[in-house]
């Protein structure tokens, strides 16, 4: 499933799940998310699993892309008619374990 298409299903997310997703987009670890939101790391893992299920994804990087798409869609809706709508470039850090390319930035064009 296309990650941006998956973001259209995000209307069913709870407020806390949206907060967790926003922090995933920022590249935060579960431990950092737990500290930021003042909840247990295990609770963060439960929210991440629920996000994966609701968005129909199985990778953290796909969650970051879906969250970035949500942010872009929200900013497009909030723009006034006077401003031209331009496509946005969202930078997402994708890390993979045991990969020589770990930590390389991917630029994603979201239209």
Number of domain modules: 1
Helix tally equals 5
Portion in beta strands: 5-15%
CATH architecture: 3-Layer(aba) Sandwich
CATH topology: Rossmann fold
Q: Which bin fits the share of residues in helices?
A: 40-55%
Low-pLDDT ranges: 80-99, 107-111
Topology as a string of helices (H) and strands (E):
HHHHHEE
Main pleated sheet = 2 strands, antiparallel
CATH homology superfamily name: Response regulator
Output the radius of gyration.
15 Å
- CATH domain class name: Alpha Beta
The average pLDDT is 75
Q: How do the strands line up in the largest sheet?
A: 1-2
Record field, number of beta strands:
2
Distance between the termini: 17 Å
Q: How would the global form be characterised?
A: globular
What would you call the structural class?
A: mainly alpha
Protein architecture, described:
By secondary structure, the chain is mostly helical. It has a single domain (3-80), classed as Rossmann fold (3-Layer(aba) Sandwich). Helix content is 51%, strand content 11%. It has five helices and two strands. The protein has a two-stranded antiparallel ribbon.
What descriptive keywords fit this protein?
111 residues, mainly alpha, Rossmann fold, two-stranded antiparallel sheet, 5 helices, 51% helix, globular, disordered C terminus
List the helices and strands and how they pair.
Elements: H1 3-6, H2 15-25, H3 30-37, H4 41-55, H5 60-78, E1 88-93, E2 105-110
Helix pairs in contact: 2-4, 2-5, 3-4
Short description:
The protein is mostly helical and 111 residues long. It has helices spanning 3-6, 15-25, 30-37, 41-55, 60-78, and strands at residues 88-93, 105-110.
């Amino acid at each position: 499933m296309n990650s941006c298409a998956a973001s259209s299903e995000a209307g069913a997310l709870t407020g806390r799940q949206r907060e967790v997703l926003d922090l995933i987009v920022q590249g935060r670890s579960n431990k950092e998310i737990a500290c930021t939101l003042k909840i247990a790391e295990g609770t963060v893992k439960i929210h991440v699993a629920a996000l994966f299920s609701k968005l129909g994804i199985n990778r953290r990087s796909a969650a970051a892309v879906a969250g970035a798409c949500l942010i872009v869609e929200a900013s497009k809706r909030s723009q006034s008619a006077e401003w031209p709508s331009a496509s946005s470039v969202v930078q997402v850090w994708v890390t993979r374990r045991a990969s020589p390319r770990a930590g390389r930035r991917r630029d994603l064009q979201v239209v």
